[in-house]
Amino acid sequence: MWKDVPGHSRTKDLLRGYCISGKIPHALLFAGVAGQGKMTVAREFFRAMNCAENTGDACGTCPSCIKAISGTHPDLVVVNPEARWIKVGEIREILADIGLKPYEARTKCIIIDPAESLNTESANALLKTLEEPPGHTVIILVSHRPKLLLPTVVSRCQFVRFSEGHGDGDPSPDVNGSRYAGQRQGEASEPDLMRSEIVGLLTGGDPALLARKYFDQEGWDLLPEVLGKAESVVRDIMVLRLGSDRVVNEELRLANLRHAGLSELEEVLDLIRSMRRGAHENINLRIAATELFIRLGHLAQA
Fold first, then answer.
1. Helix, strand or coil for residue 31?
2. pLDDT digit string (tens) for 92-148?
3. Ordered structural domains, the chain, with CATH
4. How far apart are the first and last CA of the chain?
5. Residue whose C-alpha is closest to residue 208's, from 261, 278, 154
6. Which of 26, 99, 15, 98 is nearest to 51 (CA)?
7. d(CA 166, CA 169)
């Protein structure tokens, strides 16, 4: 029952209202730092929207509530990967039956935690469902670092922010971004600022905002410099992962890079090479840069 979930009163009121009205968004993004109870709220939301009492709260005693509490409800699917990435095959398998009616519940629910474990391919596979959602399924993305999600995925979800300290969640989206992608440090020169902003993607910088900053218009003149600095960062990470410490970007020594595999680093370098080739073709620079910056941010994902 909602009273058993600590804090987040505004968010609980919002979700209770969805249940009572029956107008439940097809996709929600529960965003906030780890440890704020997002997964607990997601599970309670499933119980509330399928409780036999239909009061906007879970009774805890009806067959649906009992199965949900015990983790045996056939219409609740929780994706909580043991590996770092959720692969496209896993998402396609989960979504294969999404068009079928629920077994028992009024509304089936898929919870993905953490959503930033979706790689580009699996996120795009999920995006197709978010664009054409079935009417009897709700997808909840739980994210500790929502800036690492594809902007197209985020834009199709009802954004529910969880504040620190089990405070009240703010259901409204952060339109302008609560944290600027690259913070100016001191009086750094523009080239140093660009390098700092790209390195900052590894510590929570906003990929979409940074791409917008450099490629809001055409931005072709900045592309070689951006790609050069991004390539420098990736190669330095490779050097550190191979056990050396001879790097250009010294601050990378302090970054959490233990999950950065060499194959992933090679994929980012391939993307940089592809963007260089695309400079002579008709590509959307901002979209391409956003994908590059997201992948850079993933290299330091905890």
1. strand
2. 998 988 888 899 999 999 999 999 888 888 998 999 888 888 889 999 999 988 888
3. 9-161 (3.40.50.300), 190-299 (1.20.272)
4. 32
5. 154
6. 15
7. 8
